[in-house]
Amino acid sequence: MNRTVLWGIVIFQIILISASVYLYKKKNTPVNSKIEKRNIAILEQHKEKSFGIDVSRWQGNINWSKISRIHGKFPIDFVFIKATDGNNWTDPMFEKNWLGAGKAKILRGSYHYFKTNQDGASQAKRFIRIVRLQPNDLPPVLDIEEHPKGMTMAELKVELKEWLRIVESHYGIKPIVYSGDTFFSHFLTQEFSNYTLWIANYNAWVNEPKAHWHIWQFSKKGRVDGVQGDVDLNIFSGNLVDLVKLCKQY
Predict the structure, then answer these.
(1) What is the C-alpha separation between 189 and 181, in angstroms, rounded?
(2) Is 54 a catalytic residue?
(3) Strand 78-85 and strand 107-113: pairing?
(4) What is the pTM of this model?
(5) Which of 44, 95, 145, 242 is catalytic?
(6) Does residue 242 have an active-site annotation?
(7) Model confidence pLDDT, tens digit, residues 174-226
(8) Could you tell me whether strands 74-75 and 69-70 are parallel, antiparallel, or unpaired per DSSP bridges?
(9) Which of 54, 143, 181, 230 is labelled catalytic?
(10) Where do the H-state alpha helices sit in the chain?
């Protein structure tokens, strides 16, 4: 075995060990008490609304039979599950999570992470190949967080609209748009405010969702039985009856 191959093997092993250590720490780090207190206070303040989580491969193997409450107190009404990323990648846990949420009888939705160096049509087609909506599933979600790469912001908006158009036409239901509060406010408000909006804002001084937020992702450090480590927490602006109205009906 030559030295180049040997060094390649060593480097690969180091990467595997580093990844394992990172995932172990992520799953076993105790939640910060201040964060937990804020999470609980916000959930208490909005207990007439619907609560949910969103998951991806980063949550590892989820025990869906145990998924029921946030911080042991607040019922989970919905979950959004990562399906695809760009035009050539599928979350390896999507199928398992999708089926698990269905068996747990939690309202489920799927989301696509939009890559800003790829066109909207090819990304939409990837998502459509992977996700099969059933009656009472939540609308598809377009997750846009990145600044444009290789295109202008105006060109990016055209590609986002193309993804939304193709996906709505295919499923017969208008998608949800997800973004960070600052990114959405600075770049997307005018063209995309007529969509159901799912906005991420984790700022400690924000305790109330803004009027135009239909879903508020208020924390990325929640704890839920059945999930090892942190999970994102969300509040829907209405009750469960209102949430069901968003779902695909046929």
Answers:
(1) 10
(2) yes
(3) parallel
(4) 0.87
(5) 145
(6) no
(7) 999 999 999 999 999 999 999 999 999 999 899 899 999 999 999 999 999 99
(8) antiparallel
(9) 54
(10) 3-28, 33-45, 94-103, 120-130, 153-171, 181-183, 189-192, 240-246
